[in-house]
Write a structure and sequence with these properties.
The protein is an alpha+beta fold. Helices cover about 30% and strands about 35% of the residues. It has one domain: Gcn5-related N-acetyltransferase (GNAT) (Aminopeptidase, 3-Layer(aba) Sandwich). It is globular and about 50 Å long.
Length: about 190
Amino acid sequence: MALGFVRPARPDDAAEIARIQLATWRTAYRRMFPPHVLANLDEAYLARGWTEAITSPPSPRHRVLVAVEQSEAASSTVGFAAFGPADEQALAPEEPALPATVAAVTDLLVEPRWGRRGHGSRLLSAAVTHWRDDGFEYAVAWAYEQDKATQKFLTSAGWEPDGAGRALDVDDMLVPQLRLHVAVGGE
């Protein structure tokens, strides 16, 4: 029987987070982005960014968490979440700043081969606990319009589209996103 849990990321998790990020993007987004864009992503560059996020977060309310599946034979990091106060990256075009009581998810990924084992739910639950402890009342997250799995996961947890949208320019191709939100205050 395997045991799943979530813990704060440590600097030595950065390379594995980058590997999971690339593996997940290359699987989940292979039909959304041109193949050369996904093929040319630099895992070492991503790992350096994750090391920085873990060791020198912009504020005490910025966090990186990892999901771990542990069995008698092994322990594997299988997913991660990153979040903090909503900043300009959480905004739709020409939108004013969001209130200080809004958290923003920048990443919430579980490697596809570890999916459907509750790791995403555990990551989200741990994030909500941190948000409440840090005084956040709401949270937002962007999802690609074509990423129905992420949208389904978030809406099943009570998130709803808030009407905001944007498109990322990926190698001269616009990839539309929609923003979802949820209230996190109270019980």
